[in-house]
C-alpha cells in the first residue's frame, strides 16, 4: 500500500491514479483544466412595436428585445443558436461579426454568400466555435434588417487561469446605433428608385437601444395620438451606475446604419485597451471615434466628484447632421439617484468635419507588446479598391473599381463547392483602377459603372494586400468615410494616408513592427488605408462597406479561397436558387 492524497489505495492502481493526477496538474499549469463548454441559445425573431427613441414603430426583436441577448462565452466554447424566424412574411439571416468561423464557413450568416436565407416559420441552427477572446457582435445580414433592431453583442472571455494585460473592477457593454423612423423597405425602395431618394440623416442616436426624439418636431399629424410619447419607458435614458473609485471596462461597439460617431463621458478620460478583439498599446482619449462594425474596450475610473452624475454622449462626425440630436445617457455615481440628471449641459461634440483627430486615433491604434502578431514581410498579391459613387442605367450605385456588386440567387459558397459555374459571373473583377489618370478630388465626367457578381479567387495561404482608396462622390467636395469589414479573417492595418495612394513610395511607410489586427477599418475622406491578410480560411467571404445603404447599393466584394478544403455543406444552408429542393432543416 502507498499514500496518495492521504488515501490508502491498492498498489496496482496507484500508478494509474498518479499518472492521471500528474496530467491534471499539467492541465492546470497550461490553463486548460476546464474543458470548452457548449452554450445553447433559443431565439425567436419577430416584429414588435417598440419605441426606442419614444416614437413607436415596428422593430425586429429577439425574444422580445432589442438589442438582443448578449452571448457570453469563454475562448474555444461552442455556440449553438437555434433561430426561429417569426417574421411571417420576411426571410432572415444573422452574421456573427468578428467570429472567423474556422471550419464552419457555412455558418457565417451572410445571405447570398454563405447560406440561403431562413424562411418564415422555420428554425435554423447555427453552430460555431469562438476561438479568440474579445468583444464581438452579431446582426442581421439580410437586406437592411440590421437597422431595424436585429443586433447584439458577443463577449468572449479568456480560459480559466489566463489573465488580461490590464485590470478593472467591473465589465459593462454598450452598443451605439443610429435610428430611422422609415422602415427598411421604404429606405430600400428610395435607394432603388429613379430619381434616387437618399435615406437622409437618422432621426435619433441610440445608446444601447435607447434615445430621445423630440416629439414636438413631428411634422405630420398622426392618427395615433400616442405614437410619440416622451414618457414611454422604452426610451428612458441609458444609465450606467458606477461605484466611486472603481475602474470599469466598457466594451463599446458601433452598429450604425450610416453614421460615424464620437463617444464621451463628461469629465472622464477613457483608456483604450482593445480593438476588435486585439489588445492595443493603451492610449487616453476624451472622445472615442467609432465606425460601424468596430468594437473597443476602454477603461474608465470613477474618480470625479461623486455627489453628482455625468453625461454620456454620442454625436455624429464626418457628416453634417444638424437635425439629429445627440445620444444621451447618464454615468451615475452610486448612491446618487439614477434619475437625477447631471447639473450641466452635455459636453460639446467634436467638429463634425475635422478629420485630424479621427485620423490621429487611427494612427494611434497599435498592437500591444507581448500580443503582437507579426505580419508577413511582403505580399503575394496587391488589390487596390477605388471607392466611388456611380450610375448604372439611371440608378445611383456605389462601386469598387467601377464595378457595383450584386448578389447572385445561389450563395457563392454553395456554387463554388458544387462547381455551379453558371450561377455567377466567372470573369474576375479588376485588381485596380487607372492610377495615373484618375483624379480622386473631382466629380468624374463619366460616372457610369457596370454591375457584376464575380468573385476574387485567392490562392490558399497566400498573403494579400488590400489598398482602400477613397475619392470624391457625385457631389462636389464630398468624400465619405467608409468602414470596411472583412468576414472570416482579421487583417493587419499597415497604414493610413491622405490623398492618392502612391504604390511606389507609400509601402515604404508601412508599419510592419506592431500593426494592430482588426476586422473593420475606416478609409477616411480623400484618403487611403492599407491592409494585409492571409487567405488561410477555406470559404467564401464578404468584404464590404458596413454602411447599410452603401452595401445595399453595391459597395462590396467576395473573396474565395481554399474551396477544395471546405467540408461537406449542411443541407440546412440550401433551398434557394439552384439549390431549391435540397434544403433539410
From TrEMBL:
It catalyses: 4 L-ascorbate + O2 = 4 monodehydro-L-ascorbate radical + 2 H2O. Its EC number is 1.10.3.3. It comes from the Eukaryota. Its cofactor is Cu cation. It is found in: Secreted. InterPro entries: Cu-oxidase-like_N, Cu-oxidase_2nd, Cu-oxidase_C, Cu-oxidase_fam, Cu_oxidase_CS, Cu_oxidase_Cu_BS, Cupredoxin, CuRO_3_AAO. Keywords: Copper, Disulfide bond, Glycoprotein, Metal-binding, Oxidoreductase, Repeat, Secreted. Residues 45-156, 174-334, 441-562 form the Plastocyanin-like domain. GO terms for molecular function: copper ion binding; L-ascorbate oxidase activity. One of its GO terms (cellular component) is extracellular region. Its main location: secreted. Belongs to the multicopper oxidase family. Dimer. This is L-ascorbate oxidase.
